[in-house]
Design brief:
Distance between the termini: 13 Å
Number of helices: 4
Number of domains: 1
Strand order of the largest sheet: 1-2
Shape: elongated
Largest sheet: 2 strands, antiparallel
Order of helices and strands: EEHHHH
Number of strands: 2
Length: 146
C-alpha cells in the first residue's frame, strides 16, 4: 500500500491510502474485452450467414463446414454465445472463468482459421488476438496471491 502524506490548509498530516494494482489486471481486462468483442463479431457473422441469399463464394465448396452457409451460421452463433459468456466470466475474475476463457480463446482461434482461404489477413489478426487472450489468461488468470 502506498500512503503519501497530504497537507491541507488548517489541517495536520493526513494519510491517503491507494490500493496497489494487482499484477495482470490490464491483461485480464484486455482478455475479457477481446472475448466479448470477438463474440459480438461472431454473432454478426452468423446473422450475415443466415440472411445471405447471393451466390456462394467459389471456394466454399471445399470449406471446412461444407457448402451450406447455415452450417457456418450455426457454428458462428454458438461460438459467439460461448465467447460472450466467457467474457463476462473473465471480467468477474472467477477461477472458473479462466478455464472457460482459455477454452473460448482456443475455439475462437480455431474458428477464425476456417475463414483463412477467404480473408487471410483478418483471420491472422483474429488468431493473434486469441493468442494474446490465451496468454493473458494463462499468465494472469490464476488465483491471486494475498
Amino acid at each position: 500500500m502506498t500512503s503519501p502524506s497530504v497537507q491541507m490548509a488548517g489541517q495536520r498530516n493526513q494519510s491517503v491510502v491507494y490500493a496497489d494494482e494487482v499484477a495482470g489486471t490490464g491483461w485480464l481486462f484486455f482478455a475479457g474485452t477481446i472475448l466479448g468483442l470477438a463474440g459480438v463479431m461472431r454473432i454478426v457473422d452468423s446473422i450475415w450467414a443466415f440472411s445471405y441469399n447471393g451466390a456462394l463464394p467459389q471456394g466454399l465448396k471445399d470449406g471446412v463446414l461444407g457448402s451450406n452457409l447455415n452450417n457456418y451460421a450455426w457454428t458462428w452463433l454458438i461460438v459467439g454465445i460461448v465467447l460472450i459468456i466467457s467474457s463476462g466470466l473473465v471480467l468477474t475474475g472467477s477461477q472458473f472463468a479462466r478455464w472457460v476463457g482459455l477454452f473460448a480463446a482456443a475455439i475462437g482461434a480455431l474458428s477464425a482459421m476456417t475463414w483463412m482461404p477467404y480473408y487471410p489477413v483478418w483471420s491472422l489478426t483474429y488468431v493473434l488476438m486469441a493468442v494474446l487472450t490465451f496468454y493473458a489468461l494463462a499468465r494472469y488468470g490464476g488465483r491471486q496471491r494475498a
